[in-house]
Write a structure and sequence with these properties.
Blueprint lengths: L13 H4 L35 H38 L5 H19 L8 H29 L6 H28 L7 H23 L1 H7 L1 H6 L10 H9 L1 H10 L1 H9 L2 E3 L11 H13 L3 E8 L4 H13 L3 E6 H5 L10 H7 E2 L2 E8 L6 H15 L6 E4 H35 L3 H24 L2 E3 L1 H30 L4 H33 L3 H23 L1 H15 L13 H12 L23
Parallel strand pairs: 1-7
Antiparallel strand pairs: 2-5, 2-6, 3-5, 4-5
Helix pairs in contact: 2-3, 2-4, 2-20, 3-4, 3-6, 4-5, 4-6, 4-19, 4-20, 5-6, 5-17, 5-19, 5-23, 9-20, 10-22, 11-18, 17-18, 17-19, 18-19, 18-21, 18-22, 19-20, 19-21, 20-21, 20-22
Length: 626
Amino acid sequence: MRKRDDFEDDGRTIADMSGIGPTPTLLPHSRKSAAAPKPVNDRPWEQPDEWTAKEKFWAVMGALKATLLIAGAYLVGLAVLLALVAMMVTLESTVLPFIFLASIGLAVIYNMGTNIFLGEISYITKAIAAVLQLGVTMDYSIFLYHRYEEERPNYDDERDAMAQAVVAAFRSLSSSSLTTVAGFLALCVMRLTLGRDIGIVMAKGVVLGVATVILVLPSLVLIFDKQITKHKHKSLMPSFDKVNSFILRHNKAIMVIFVLLFIPAYYAQSHAGIYYKLDESLPRDLPSIVSNEKLKNDFDMATSHFIVLRDDLNPAEMSDIENRMEEVKGVTSVVSYHKMLGTGIPDFFIPNEVKDMLKQGGYQLMMVNSSYSPATDAVSAQLDEMTAILKQYDENAMITGEGAMYRDLIDTTAVDFVVANYLSIACIFIIVAWAFKSITVPAVLVATIELAIFLNQGFSYFSGASTPFIAPTIISCVQLGATVDYAILMTSRFQEELQSGKNRKEAIRIAADSADASIITSALVMFCATLGVSFVSSIDLIGAICIMLARGALISACICLFVMPAVLYVCEPMFNKTTLHWRTEQPKKESKAAKALKAASEKLPARKEKAALPEKGTEQTETTEP
């Protein structure tokens, strides 16, 4: 066969063209030297000659978005795994945890899907929303199932038992969910939009979580009831009978300790360290962090202030401003159009594209570099001194930059913290007061959980650590709204036993014994889910929020287990005088929701006739009124 003259081989094999191995030697018939293959760059956003600034930005943002999506899925998977381990230990069936996770999983999917109506949510919300929803709403499933287990011996048909459990647990679930929703919605009043973002998403998640517990979980439990019963094991939950007996014997001493604990707890909480620099919550090996450190160490530029002022100031005034700025303590350099131009260069010599960078629209830009780090008292004093100088020459002059923005952030969050904290307390107080028809009951319950919050936030003071500025605000609202459920559960059962005719001591013992398992299980689920995320998250802001939630769940559970029984026992006479129908059932019509649930339970076809309830010893005295 005649060889084609126009054929030119590039000297590369198939392996070389696929990127495998070095370039081979030239083939004998090759007519020109083979060009070396171009190196493959797997970081295209770092090619300044081929990518525009806009293309680089979107390339980096796309990579960041993909990273956050992968990290979010990883965090949720870890939280589910740890929550599963916690429920395996505390629940009596190996199947039941999967039933709970299936129910809550639906609520998480619904919540994440309905976020499309918000347009967009912050990366922090996306990272912790599913984990937080899992930890906060899991206790509703646990409360309902434990009530179902209590009702089963009273009915031959498990459907009747489930219907009665839903009716009996309705008040606890409604009050608990409303307080949690109120805690999250209190974040929406923050001027910092991150609070509103988390508040809306999580309030929606709690509502959807309660909906799945009431509408989906009962069906799942009844469908898989045989499997749940078949795979039951011996409970690993320790008995708290002796502990509760000790608490009741020493109720006055525990009450005194409870009151005295407020003093050191409040002091530690109010003096805990807080940092406002967002870059301190990011990994230290990020290119932007490394660059900032290089500017600080090599060029003494820890902070740059940008000043916008009128461009009609005469040269003498500009020279005076520049000289006085350089005399401000901590200022390392001053850059302005007037200073770069000097006195020997006419203004018309400067190209317009250069001039437009520093003078435009009747204003001019001045940059002042400082050796002080932003979000510190030193840079705040420096800004005050600079503002005083500028106002003498231009009343409308403005200072912006990292230091000025952080100072505004500090001022904004200081107000946000107070408003959101007190609003959450007020809303939860009103909800609990409405549920119990009392003034003193919500005061005691809120005070109990507030002590747990003070201890949680004050832990940083004793450990010497600092927390991100947003964490205390979120924790104060979320921990109060989520863990006051434990106190509501025990208090509502305490009132139920009193209304059934039991004396104060017997009623609180039954209430504590029945609530202990639910509180421990719920707290461990929230603890394990959030603690695991705090360990693996490379963003300190997310890790700090999660570890404080984990610690708060444990502290609130301990307060409810070891302090709440004594507090309720001591305060019961006061509750009786200040609460409407505290020891007697309220002679009012049932609510529409309770009527609907009760009517549905009555219409269920019974497999057998309902067993007669014993006259004494029964605990089926739950009020059906929310």
